[in-house]
UniProtKB/TrEMBL annotation:
Residues 181-243 form the T-SNARE coiled-coil homology domain. The keyword DNA-binding does not apply. The keyword Cell wall biogenesis/degradation does not apply. Pfam families: SNARE. GO terms for cellular component: Golgi membrane; SNARE complex. This is t-SNARE coiled-coil homology domain-containing protein. Its main location: Golgi. The chain crosses the membrane at residues 254-273. It comes from the Eukaryota. It is found in: Golgi apparatus membrane. Keywords: Coiled coil, Golgi apparatus, Membrane, Neurotransmitter transport, Protein transport, Transmembrane, Transmembrane helix, Transport. It comes from Wuchereria bancrofti. It is a single-pass type IV membrane protein.
Length: 275
């Protein structure tokens, strides 16, 4: 009875298990899927913060929330870029794989790109909607600021005496104007922040579009090769069928067949005569 050493057994187990080890790009796939989950959660949080922010009567009361929203916007933009890099790692993975594994990797890349593109489109739509809401609030404040300024100027420049209660009302109006001016500045900062994120998203969309175009070129090339292979197979089948028909209709084959049968019969007769 022969014994197997521990080293040989370990090596055998390592070889059998290594054949089942998934390719390296699977790790990038898991990380990309986790990043997509984080993006969905962060987009939901940003939409909720935007709705709460736009519902405030004045943005000056919500400066901390504005900073948190800007931080989340920067983070989700970085998540998009990171996920895009992960997809690039999967595409450029240098592995030895079968045609089925290569097809699987191509389908994974296409699915990830489509999901990332849809999420980026949702984010860009949400940012554009938020920007329109800010612009609308800005126009409302500007019109009210202009009307209030004209009213205060009229009241101050008039020679009509002003009593104490009316003087207090005028000071409230002046304070409100100062607050509205600060609100306009704050909205300008919001517009710049949202515009920056939209510009970054546009850059991301361009990169995704180029990636999709490259993937489409590869798929078109694969489709072309499949079509060419199908045409060649059909042509080969037609040639075989044509050759079979020629072989059946060939007179030489009939002659060979007749001669073969005749020779067999003569051999049988010769054997009978000899015996």
């Amino acid at each position: 009875m022969s014994l197997v050493t521990l080293d040989e057994e370990t090596e055998t187990v390592h070889v059998s298990s290594s054949s089942r080890v998934p390719p390296d790009w699977v790790d990038y796939l898991d990380e990309a899927q986790y990043e997509l989950t984080r993006i969905r959660l962060r987009l939901r949080q940003i939409r909720e913060m935007q709705q709460n922010h736009i519902s405030k009567p004045t943005f000056l009361e919500d400066l901390e929330a504005q900073k948190e929203m800007d931080k989340s916007t920067d983070e989700v933009t970085e998540m998009f870029s990171h996920c895009q890099r992960l997809i690039g790692f999967i595409e450029k993975a240098n592995v030895i794989e079968s045609s089925r594994q290569s097809l699987l990797r191509g389908n994974v890349i296409s699915t990830l790109r489509l999901t990332l593109s849809n999420l980026a489109g949702d984010f860009r739509t949400s940012q554009a909607k938020f920007l329109k809401q800010i612009e609308a609030r800005k126009e409302t404040v500007n019109s009210y600021l202009l009307a209030s300024t004209d009213w205060v100027n009229t009241e101050v420049l008039d020679d009509v005496p002003i009593d104490a209660s009316h003087d207090g009302l005028t000071m409230e109006q002046i304070q409100l104007l100062l607050q509205n001016a600060d609100m306009v500045k704050e909205r300008e900062r919001d517009v710049m922040s949202v515009s920056k994120s939209i510009v970054e998203l546009n850059s991301l969309f361009k990169d995704l579009a180029s990636m999709v175009v490259d993937q489409g070129t590869v798929l078109d090339r694969i489709d072309y090769n499949v079509e060419q292979a199908a045409l060649k197979v059909n042509s080969a089948v037609s040639n075989v069928q044509r050759a079979e028909r020629y072989q059946r209709n060939d007179k030489k084959m009939y002659c060979i067949l007749v001669l073969s049968v005749t020779i067999i019969i003569l051999l049988i007769l010769l054997i009978i005569v000899k015996t």
